[in-house]
Amino acid sequence: MEGWINPYYLDIIVFLFINIILGLGLNLITGYAGQVSLGHAAFYGIGAYSTAIFSVKIGLNPWLSILLAVIITFLLSAILGLPSLRVREDFLAITTLGLGLIAQSFFKNAKITGGAYGIDGIPMPSIFGHELTDVEYLLLVFIVLLVLIYVLHRLSRSKLGQAWTAIQEDEVVAQSMGINTLYYKVLAFAIGGAFAGVAGALFAHKVSFISSDTFGFTLSATLLSMVVIGGLGTIRGTLFGVSVLYLLPEVFRIFDIKIIDPNYIDTYKMILYGLLMVIMMRYRPKGVFGRKIRHQKRAVKD
Amino acid sequence: MDALLEMKGITKRFGGLTAVDQVDLIVKKGEILGLIGPNGAGKTTFFNILTGIYRPDQGNIQFNGTDITGFKPYQIANQGIFRTFQNIRLLKDYSVLDNIKLGLFRQTKAGAWSSIFGLRRSREEEKKVAEESWALLERLGLTDLANEAAGNLSYGNQRRVEIARALVSHPEMILLDEPAAGMNSEEVESLSALVRQIRQQGTTVILIEHNVGMVVELCDRLVVLDHGVKIADGDPNQVVANPAVIEAYIGGQEVTEVVGD
């Protein structure tokens, strides 16, 4: 099978799935619990660096490294989510942006993260001594994605989802219904961050080399626009938003469309995302799959 | 006498302004208590202290034998004190049923894991929540509106839904902040009937209200606040006939002017 599938396409699909996992985690924090985050790449980086450190520097089994990375991301995300208890909305956006920048500069300068050189030689996980091939890794990422979609679906319909909805809509009401808003907000950051931790760990073992450039503000902002355009608080929205926006630039590359200079594709990408955001905010502020804003008819009649 | 709620020497200051000043209040189990007073008398501040939104500068609150002074709002709710708001606060984009279900939050226990794995306990709980919410909607005659977005309802119905949300978990005590505001006389009557029903289910009621006719007819006892001070406490008919209360409401000076003409 490996022979007739262009490995480049395989990689695109793997990275797409990893981005969807990132998007789901961010949607949990921002779409379901209403806590704006512009620092999601930090959680992604924590996941990637943790598994890299465990598997390369400590020499643990890659599977165990991934597991530990997810647990560490869960815990650190909870801690990084603590500011959300004090600040809201635009202030929270700026705070998380700051945390994201701090995290990136830590990755870039700390000794344990390999400084500016990053970490190289991250091993591919193996099963019974057989190292996963590209196709098998794709399958692994796909299964993880399906599991996480299911988890998010169940969570959104559970007591946690109910608490997050109430917090997003009106924190005073949430509290007066007996919801410990502090606890559930931190939990949203922790679980959403753990999703990013999974994505980061899968990314690290796929590319085998990571450096701090990957985990910057551009990624956080891109992810947020993908999730918002797709529709906050819906799984379909994240699947759609991340897929379309992630694949669009690749289409230009794959089909070698010459309208734009491929060397500047990343610049055009940001222009396109920005433009789409503006258009969406004007015509469909709740995203493509977002819940419709209720009709105001009756309210006027009253 | 079994006091459900006992507040002693409650004081709250905002800068130089004493919004609530040394107020004592005892509420008996099963009582309907009316809290009245002119605008700015400190009634809503008093509610906000009782529900933990504000922490009193002085004083002590005992509820059901527990000292709840300084409890956070969610802890107060978990003690069984629920409330409605002066400016209706429903989740407007969500259905009436979803809003009611929120009222049962404190009674569900299924956490993340049992939800993810779809364990029987969590499914049973979901079913129970849906059933209880539906039963209350039936009792209030709101079943037709169950799937309507709460924000689309008429004002009167929004009030009813908000009360239903506070009521559905059978709390020990419910606080209604101006429930009759903006209602016509028919709606006020059905509201009074609802409050009596609430008492019958064993829930103690405190309500803030400007509609004096309604509170006199409905309440077992009236408490009057004026400039943060309690100026009367007792039988509704006696309280509204109390000269101090009349003066607080109408204002001494204006009375003199009218007489002077």
Can you tag this structure with a few keywords?
heterodimer, A: 302 residues, mainly alpha, two-stranded antiparallel ribbon, 12 helices, disordered C terminus, B: 261 residues, alpha/beta, Rossmann fold, 2 domains, 6-stranded mixed sheet, 4-stranded antiparallel sheet, 41% helix, 24% strand, globular, transport (chain B), ABC_transporter-like_CS (chain B), ATP binding (chain B)
Secondary-structure map:
The complex is a heterodimer of chains A (302) and B (261).
Chain A: H1 7-32, H2 40-57, H3 62-80, H4 89-109, E1 126-127, E2 130-131, H5 134-156, H6 159-169, H7 171-176, H8 181-207, H9 217-230, H10 235-254, H11 265-283, H12 297-301
Antiparallel strand pairs in A: 1-2
Helix pairs in contact in A: 1-5, 1-8, 1-9, 1-10, 2-3, 2-4, 2-8, 3-8, 6-8, 9-10, 9-11, 10-11
Chain B: E1 3-14, E2 17-28, E3 32-36, H1 43-50, E4 58-63, E5 66-67, H2 73-79, E6 81-83, H3 96-102, H4 112-116, H5 120-139, H6 155-167, E7 173-177, H7 185-200, E8 204-208, H8 212-218, E9 221-226, E10 229-234, H9 236-241, H10 243-250, H11 252-260
Parallel strand pairs in B: 3-8, 3-9, 6-7, 7-8
Antiparallel strand pairs in B: 1-2, 1-4, 4-5, 9-10
Helix pairs in contact in B: 3-6
